[in-house]
Amino acid sequence: MRRTATHLLSSPNPAQLEMRILANHGADKRFAFLKGRWSHAWLILKAKIRAEREKKEQQKKSGLGMLASYDSELDEDDRVSSEIGENGVEQDDAKVDKAVDETKKELRRQKAKEWAEKRRAQTNKPKYNENSK
Fold first, then answer.
1. Could you tell me which of 46, 76, 89, 126 has the fewest CB atoms within 10 Å of its CB?
2. What is the pTM of this model?
C-alpha cells in the first residue's frame, strides 16, 4: 500500500494512475485495498504520505533550520521553536484530515458516476413486452 501511494503521489495525475491500476489489476489481490474493505485505511495512508512529503519539502526549503546562532538568547529561541513545532503538528493533522475528506469525496463522485452509467445503460435497454408478439 505504501509503495503504491508514493508512486501515485509522485505522479502528475494521481487519479488517472489509480484508475489505470484498478482497470488493469482490479482482480489482483495485491491491489484489493484500492476498493472495498480497506478503502478507509488506503485513504488514511495516502493522506499521511502526502503530509510527510509536504513536511520534507518544507524542511528542504528551511535551509539551516536551527543552526542560526549560539547566543545567550538560545533558550528563548528554543522555547519559541517548540511552540511553533506544536502548532505545526496541529496543522499537519488538519492537512491529513482535509486530504482524507477530499479523497472520500472523490471516491463518492466516482461511485456516483459509475452508478449513473449503469442506470443509463439499464434504461436504454429495449424492454421485452409480451403483448408485442
1. 126
2. 0.43
